[in-house]
Automatic annotation (TrEMBL):
Taxonomic superkingdom: Eukaryota
InterPro entries for this protein: Alkaline_phosphatase_core_sf (IPR017850), Sulfatase (IPR050738), Sulfatase_N (IPR000917)
Residue ranges of domain Sulfatase N-terminal in the record: 2-380
Gene Ontology MF terms: arylsulfatase activity
Protein name: Sulfatase N-terminal domain-containing protein
Similarity comment: family membership: Belongs to the sulfatase family.
Length: 512
């Protein structure tokens, strides 16, 4: 969506590589063009078009849009790149579980790749001894930008997709210690405090009702704070301290990039976007049936004692209750099509957009809007439905330029339709209306309808109250699903339910 200005399904990435190849394969998605697990050749990417216009395109960070050289950043328009191809890895590059005797663990997050890191088109088998993902990605990007100084009249496009704060949660020790005690009150109390602060800052209305916690009591990491023993609370609070340390270290690195732009006199003419790619991580290691290997592997290789959490040889995550702190006041979190999974904040810095400088905007926008915005500012036209003799998808996003310069009051009108689907979780939005279908065991499997203008929490189902509107929305969904090649996935939900039962028998707090 970011790289193509169109939907994930039309771009071929209606699923991630891990669900297309490797241990997570979903039978219904096999040979489906909307679920290739990599960018399709039926889309033209932002860096490809900018390259054609003479731009110097560089990237350092997580790619996750293809796990082979043929689908790497270099193959899709980046001149220089250092990338983690897959969904996640140790932030210090320490991967003991990839030894031959534990190779069954490998497919879990690896998505069928033959390697984890690519330096342009060369596989990397060894990383620097002091490697830490956020630091290394940032330093490589700044090096690429410095390399451009020999030709400083050439415009650049730089992409820095951090791996942080994806699990395993790992951060420099001094950053972790800064947050000792901050999360000792537990997720329920911290969530209340955050919601109150959001109201005071004007990010949500003063009468906004937050979504209730989604309860999965059998999960150790989802038990209410008062129902957990003292050690479980300490471990949980420590994981959040690690997470916070990761985020602050990432912020420090972003500051390094901004300082470089300032020092080289480029900040005034550079637009900077910062945003998350999804809601907070609430799954337990992106759970799937393959995870039956996780428990013995973690116990064998990693030291997850309280004092060691966050170290290079630890491997932990914080669970879905803390995730719902991160997505408050919205419902659920990453991997879901409720607001908690898809609604994120975005920061934009561009001094020339003085009409909107310093504002907090609540206007609806999507990640598909970023590519048309950049092309608009760069004076580069999208080729439409044909690129270099091949049929390609057109962009669905819309440029922000007219809104940011004060010429329009909104980016999208009330007729704009946006759809989402991932692992059978489906949603469609038109104006402020949204329909969502959440399969079992998380939901009823029936469509619900909400008015987001008055119900951020997606709490009041208006399907029965406005049957004509619901029929209209459902009709829009069916048309959208057909056009975008969406498959109704069912088997994965059954597999997830089975896996949940398996993990009920394991005390994960002793391991992660």
């Amino acid at each position: 969506m970011l790289m193509t200005g169109t939907s994930a399904h039309l771009a071929g990435v209606g699923t991630i590589p891990e669900f297309h190849s490797g241990a997570y394969q979903i039978p219904e998605l096999k040979d489906q063009p909307a679920y290739l697990g990599h960018l399709s050749d039926k889309v033209v990417t932002l860096p490809e078009l900018l390259r054609d216009a003479g731009y110097y395109n560089v990237m350092a960070g997580k790619w996750h849009l293809g796990s082979t050289k043929e689908h790497s950043p270099k193959a899709r328009g980046f001149e220089k790149s250092f990338t983690l191809l897959v969904g996640g890895a140790n932030h210090h590059g320490w991967e003991p579980e990839l030894a031959p005797e534990d190779i069954k663990f490998k497919p879990m997050l690896r998505g069928g790749t033959t390697g984890l890191y690519l330096d342009e088109d060369e596989w990397i088998s060894e990383l620097p001894k002091d490697y830490y993902s956020s630091d290394y990605f940032t330093d490589r990007l700044i090096t690429y930008l410095k390399d451009r100084e020999d030709d400083d009249k050439r415009p650049f496009f730089a992409y820095l997709p951090f791996q942080a704060p994806h699990f395993p949660l790992q951060a420099p020790k001094d950053y972790i210690e800064k947050y000792d005690g901050v999360y000792d009150d537990g997720p329920e109390r911290v969530r209340e405090q955050r919601i109150e602060r959001l109201k005071k800052l004007g990010f949500i209305s003063s009468d906004a009702k937050p979504a209730a916690f989604s309860e999965y009591p059998h999960r150790m990491s989802n038990r209410n704070w008062e129902h957990r023993d003292d050690m479980a609370r300490k471990r949980s609070a420590r994981k959040m301290a690690v997470f916070a340390g990761m985020v602050e270290r990432m912020d420090w690195n972003i500051g390094k990039v901004m300082d470089h732009l300032e020092a080289t006199g480029q900040r005034e003419n550079t637009i900077v976007f910062f945003l998350s790619d999804n809601g907070a991580e609430g799954t337990q290691l992106e759970a799937a049936p393959a995870n039956r290997n996780v428990i013995p592997v973690l116990a064998k290789h990693f030291d997850n004692s309280l004092e060691n959490l966050g170290a290079p040889n630890s491997f932990c995550w914080y669970g879905n209750r803390w995730a719902q702190v991160g997505t408050a006041p919205s419902k659920l979190y990453k991997f879901f099509t409720h607001q908690g999974g898809i609604r994120v904040c975005s920061l934009v810095n561009y001094p020339k957009w003085s009409k909107r400088n310093g504002i907090v905007s609540h206007e609806y926008s999507t990640i598909m809007d970023i590519m048309p915005t950049i092309l608009d500012l760069a004076g580069v036209q999208h080729p439409g439905s044909e690129y270099k003799g091949k049929t390609v998808e057109t962009m669905l996003g819309k440029s922000w330029t007219s809104y940011m310069t004060g010429k329009q009051d909104s980016v999208h009108d009330s007729e704009t339709i946006t759809g989402w689907e991932f692992l059978g979780r489906q949603a469609l939005r038109k104006g402020s209306w949204k329909i969502v279908k959440l399969p079992q065991p998380w939901g009823t499997g029936e469509w619900e309808m909400f008015d987001l203008s008055t119900d951020l929490a997606e709490d009041i189902n208006l399907r029965e109250k406005f049957p004509e509107k619901f029929d209209e929305m459902l009709g829009e969904w069916r048309e959208y699903a057909k056009k975008h090649g969406i498959v109704d996935v069912k088997s994965v939900e059954q597999a997830y339910a089975l896996q949940e039962q398996e993990w009920t028998e394991s005390d994960l707090e002793d391991i992660v």
